[in-house]
Amino acid sequence: MSAKVPRRLEITSSGMADWATLQTDIVGLIVKKLAVPDYIRFRAVCTSWNHVCKDVSYCPRVDPWLMLPPNPTPLGAQFFCIPERKNQNIRLPSTASFFESVWAPVGSLNGWLIYFSQTYGTMQLVNPISGRQIQLPPIGRRIFSKAKLLEMNERNFIVAVLYGDQKGYKITRKGSNNWSSVESTHILDDIIKHRGRLYTCDMYGTVEVWAEPPRAWPDEEMTHQWRFRCLVETPAGDLIRVKRQSQNKFAVWILDKGSFSWVETDNIGDFALFVSHYNSFCFLAKDHPNLKANCIYFIDIHNNLCAFNLEHGTKELVETLAIGLDRNDYYRRPQRDQLLWFIPSLK
Questions:
Q1: Cβ-proximal residues to 31 (8 Å cutoff; 6+ apart), any chain
Q2: Are residues 83 and 47 in the same domain?
Q3: In which domain, by residue range, is 47 found?
Q4: CATH no. for residue 216?
Q5: How far is CA 87 from the centre of its chain?
Q6: Is the pLDDT assigned to residue 18 strictly greater than 50?
Q7: Gene3D superfamilies under this entry (predicted)?
Q8: Number of domain units in the chain
């Protein structure tokens, strides 16, 4: 039996290679190395390549992005891709209505952004890659501290809102026509869903799991200086507590599953943490160019993108972001708190 001869590029009548006839497995290898914006352009080239892209085994490379404040006359949402060190512009659905200074991004999870309009007192979920939109129940025009998308999948979504001057939080989910209010002992800084339970971190650093019986861990230091605390779930399923100790220094604890206690660490392995006021997440760094493992990526007081090395306790400048004062028209908080992290998703 003769050996199977691999299919080669066919030549068109004009003498040029017909790239649509490229072998499927080769196209698939190319797809896996593409960032999401390049993947979208790639699948639009021809029917053959688009068909290959529909195969779930050929997925593009997913990188962490930093969403930047909009320009006064934007063409869409602007993101800074960390590994590639370049900006990406994504045209949002109903772009004009989003950026007539009435809509602002206030949260993100799994490829979705949370947009809030103080003008209308409404909120909606937007996937800037797929173009999907989900309208949430009216929440009112009162300014809140942050909105968290706690869960997002085909069956359900859960959104929580925290207020900087009010205890507890409000929550809504898929199929609900209103927001439910939940009380807490103190004002909350963060909330996350981990292994089916809700965990909160209050203004004093106390972390509490919302289950029966209630369980709480007080912070080691009762201080408000450089107050920033967040809860992050790793891809491995661990829960991490992050605390900002000074302008350029962070501390990290991991919840021990056996003793159910917090263990401070300076080694999170191949992961990198991305933290901000609105949202924070954990990302596997080793397979992405220019990303450093065991680091915390954050925005410093000079609006620089920086990385804090947990092992050495040092800060490194990653990129000077072009976000001048003229880009501050739509926001009230300091600029470093306006930026949020984003992981693009095609779903």
A1: 39, 42, 52, 53, 58, 59, 60
A2: no
A3: 10-53
A4: 2.120.10
A5: 16
A6: yes
A7: 1.20.1280.50
A8: 2
